[in-house]
Amino acid sequence: MAGASLLDHLGPGDHACLVYDDEPLWAWSVAAFIRSGLRQHHRILYCGQGADRLPSVLAEQGVDVTAALSRGQLTVAGVEAAYLPEGVFDPEASLAAWMGEVEAARAAGYRGMRGIGDMSWAWRGVGLDQVSWYEAQVNRICVDGYTAGLCLYDRRLFGEPELRRVTRTHPATITRHTDPERIPLLRAVRTGDLGLRLSGEADLSNRQALRSMVEHLVEEATTREPVTLDVSDLRFADSAAARILLEPAATGGHLLEVVGCSKALRRLLTFHWAGPSGSLHME
């Protein structure tokens, strides 16, 4: 199973995809994530299959959630209530609901918000384009540094091409074979109005997630407004990731400041830079 220490590393700012292949891994992982959230005084919302039996499953894992349920710190909702209230999946409505839950958690004084979504229902004829778009947009919520999301997909229901599409929209993916000592593969948190702090690794496995977060950073900004990327803790970026990082200046018309740039990343960004003179500054 995925190591407990890895799930304990997940917190505000993370959006991870857990791919499971049996009931014990599902139960153990959900319990670990909820246990950590209760310990840190986070508001927790579970959506998806198994909602009706979640309290008993958690009890079997040694997590007593009776008090958390009664005081509203933990809320559970089934597939129909959470994702298919009108019988069809409306990704924009689901995103709006998540954002409402985040604001309610802030107003109630919780230290963070955790959302757990078992998306295994999506194999039942729901367009994968819709699901992938939805997952990419969830990054725009988690990047606030207050919210953490854990999405679950049952490997027994999805083919490998389908799983690759959805996992690449997440900054981090966890399976039973993931090294338990690794922090989430990629973490991004907003800093100020037009800043993003990146840590970990950016590569093919999380490319769509990175793109959605960078696009979100600048979509409402005016042209030439300075954008700051803090990459001090970014251990690795491939060529495609480097081009995404450059997009605010290369095609978006912004002044781009890259802070904490390693020598390797500086060389990579310089190699791919083809934007206007004076639009890119690297420290």
Description:
By secondary structure, the chain is an alpha/beta fold. Helices cover 40% and strands 23% of the residues. The protein folds into two domains: 4-174, P-loop containing nucleotide triphosphate hydrolases (Rossmann fold); 186-282, STAS domain (Transcription Regulator spoIIAA), CATH 3.30.750.24. It has eleven helices and eleven strands. β4 (112-118), α7 and β5 (147-154) form a beta-alpha-beta unit. The radius of gyration is 19 Å and the shape is globular.
The largest pleated sheet is described as: 6 strands, parallel
DSSP helical segment count: 11
Assembly classification: single chain
Based on CA atoms alone, the radius of gyration comes out at 19 Å
Show unreliable segments: none
Q: How many β strands by DSSP?
A: 11
**Which class of the largest domain in CATH terms?**
Alpha Beta
The secondary-structure class comes to alpha/beta
- CATH H level of the largest domain: which superfamily? P-loop containing nucleotide triphosphate hydrolases
Strand-residue proportion: 15-25%
Which features characterize this protein?
Transcription Regulator spoIIAA, 6-stranded parallel beta sheet, alpha/beta, 11 strands, 5-stranded mixed beta sheet, globular, Rossmann fold, 2 domains, 283 residues, 11 helices
Secondary structure layout:
Blueprint (H helix, E strand, L loop, with lengths): L3 H6 L5 E6 L2 H17 L2 E6 L6 H7 L5 H6 L2 E4 L1 H4 L8 H17 L4 E7 L9 H15 L4 E8 L5 H8 L4 E3 L11 E5 L4 E8 L4 H12 L8 E11 L1 H12 L5 E4 L3 H10 L7 E3 L1
Parallel strand pairs: 1-5, 1-6, 2-3, 2-4, 4-5, 8-9, 9-10, 10-11
Antiparallel strand pairs: 7-8
Helix pairs in contact: 6-7, 7-9, 9-10, 10-11
